[in-house]
Design goal:
mainly beta; six-stranded mixed beta sheet; three-stranded antiparallel beta sheet; 41% strand; binds zinc ion
């Protein structure tokens, strides 16, 4: 199988979409409260702000703002990706809908700074026994146009 035809499966269900095209970024699977308009990630049945059960599942943005980050100087557990061998960043990313997500970051430590626009993308952690790519999400800094 080629890179393009291998099936990508999420490391965990119900957290993000896995679009069929590698060019399409994943979306985060969240919940919106129809009473107070608060958004949540991960999904929940009852609003944590107003306790309403009048909630709906939504797909949220794949782009956000880096609120804070750190860099872990050990290889990422469970990953065979070359870029994870030297360590990896972990960021807190604010989505425009409101939730703050804690996710791995793609790139080197010097690439990150607070306030950066970051884009979610799928990252292959490993190949499973059936030949599928097991994917997770990380955020990558977006090139800012001057
Ligand atoms: Zn609510």
């Amino acid at each position: 199988m080629t890179e393009e035809t291998r099936t990508r499966i999420p490391i965990k269900e119900d957290f993000f979409t896995v679009p069929s095209s590698p060019q399409v970024p994943p979306k985060f699977l969240g919940t919106r409260c129809k009473e107070c308009d608060e958004y949540f990630f991960p999904r929940r049945a009852i609003c944590a702000k107003c306790n309403s059960q009048n909630t709906v599942d939504v797909e949220m943005s794949s782009r956000g703002t880096l609120y804070s980050y750190t860099f872990v100087h050990i290889p990422m557990f469970g990953s065979s990706a070359e870029e994870h061998k030297e360590g990896y960043g972990v960021g807190q990313v604010d989505l425009p809908e409101g939730p703050r997500l804690q996710m791995p970051l793609a790139g080197k430590q010097a690439d990150f700074r607070v306030g950066l626009t970051v884009q979610a993308e799928l990252s292959t952690l490993r190949r499973d026994d059936a030949g599928n790519d097991v994917v997770t999400v990380h955020f990558r800094p977006v090139e800012e146009k001057p």
